[in-house]
Amino acid sequence: MKSLVNLSLATVTVFTATFALLQASPIQKIFLDDNVVVSVPVATNRVTTINFPSAITAIDGAGITVDGKTPGMFQLAHTKASAFLSVRALFPKASANLNIRWNDHTYVFELTENDQPVLSLNMTAMPAPEEADSGHTPEVSPIKLLALLDKAKAFPLLKVQQPETVAGVDFTTYDGTPLVSDFNDYEIQIDEAFRFNAEDTLVFRLVITNKIDSPLIYQPDSFALRAGNRLYPESISDADGTVPPKGQSIVYFAVSGTPDGGRNELSLRNAFTVLVTRLSPLPPAVTVTNVPSVHPIRPPKA
C-alpha cells in the first residue's frame, strides 16, 4: 500500500517593481536595486552597454546568443571578469530577459527592441542613508579618511581580488590628457582620481616634479583643489613636504564636501587644478619690463 504524504505549500508574495528607462536620454545612470526589473530599450542598429561598478560574476538569459549563430533575439558581448556587457537586438519587436549576478545579488533586465535605444546604462551603488538626507556631506572621520587613502592606493588589487570593497567607487586616469598645474620651477600632475560617493570624497594621486637644482619644500597639509571658480581645501593628505632636486614625489590627498558643509558632487571629468603652499625656495620675484616711463611733474615757473 502506498503511503500518502501531504505537502503543505507556503505561498510567498514577492513585491517587485519595473523601472522603465527614459528613451529620450541615450546615456543614463540608475542605482542598483535587486528588487526592481529594469526595462532597457535596445536597437537593431546600435549597441547598448550596461556598466557595473566592478567585475560581473555571472550572466544568464533567455533568447540571448553570444556568437550570432545560435538562435536568439539579442546578441551579447562580454569579456570574463570585466564590469560591462553590450547587447544588440537582432529582430524587430524582440524581447528577452537578462539576469546579471554581481556582488552576491541578482539584477534583472528586460530587453525590448526599440528605435530609440539607451546606448549606455551606468549602474551605481545605492547611496548611503546619510547621503540622501539634506544635501549635507556625511561626517567623515580621520580614520575613515585614512581608510579611503589606503583603498585608493590598493585599488587595482582590490578591484580584482575583493571587488565588493570598491563597489561604487568611480575611478579615472589622465594618461591621454594629463591634468598638469605648471608653476615654472615645479609642476603638479594628477595621475589618478577616485570618487567615493557615499563619503562625498575625492582622492587624488599626484606626481610633483621639481625642475630646479635645490630641494622643493612645501607645506604638506596645504593642498587645495580648484574646480571652476571654487576652491576645496584638503581633508587629508599623505605627503612628506619635500621633493628632491630635479626629482619627483608621489602624493595622495583628498577633499570632502565643500567648505560650507555641503556636498561637492564633483565629477572626475572636471578640469582640476591642484595648489600647494610653497615654503622654500621662495618663488622668484616678478620683474615687470613693460611699464611705461613716468616723468616727474615739475611745478610751473613763477
Shape: elongated
CATH fold name of the largest domain: Immunoglobulin-like
Strand content: 35-45%
Quaternary organization: single chain
Low-confidence stretches: 1-16, 130-134
Could you spell the SSE succession in H and E letters?
EEEEEEEEEEEHHEEEEEEEEEEEE
Number of E-type strands? 23
Distance between the termini: 144 Å
Major β-sheet, in short? 6 strands, mixed
Q: Count of helices?
A: 2
State the helicity in percent bands. under 10%
| Tally of separate domains | 2
> What integer is the average pLDDT?
83
Structural class: mainly beta
Strand order of the largest sheet: 2-11-4-8-7-6
Radius of gyration over all CA atoms, rounded? 28 Å
How does this structure look, described?
The structure is a single chain. The protein has 302 residues and is mainly β. It has two helices and 23 strands. It folds into two domains: 108 residues, Immunoglobulin-like (Sandwich); 149 residues, Sandwich (Immunoglobulin-like), CATH 2.60.40.
SSE order and pairing:
Elements: E1 17-20, E2 27-31, E3 36-42, E4 48-51, E5 58-62, E6 64-65, E7 74-77, E8 84-89, E9 95-102, E10 105-113, E11 120-124, H1 142-153, H2 155-161, E12 169-173, E13 179-182, E14 186-196, E15 201-210, E16 216-218, E17 224-227, E18 230-233, E19 236-238, E20 242-243, E21 248-256, E22 273-275, E23 278-280
Parallel strand pairs: 1-3, 2-11, 3-10, 4-11, 6-7
Antiparallel strand pairs: 4-8, 5-9, 7-8, 9-10, 12-14, 13-14, 14-15, 15-21, 16-20, 16-23, 17-18, 17-22, 19-21
